[in-house]
Amino acid sequence: MVRERKPSTYDHNVSIDIQLLGMVLTRAKGKNLTDYLS
What we know:
By secondary structure, the chain is an all-alpha fold. It has 2 helices and no strands.
């Protein structure tokens, strides 16, 4: 098996929870998640 990246060098976390949180904050505060957290 050939790996694209060395183990523990790439972290790709895909979670619907983060997307859902972003959608809720956008509707509640009128800002996107990036703006809200900065």
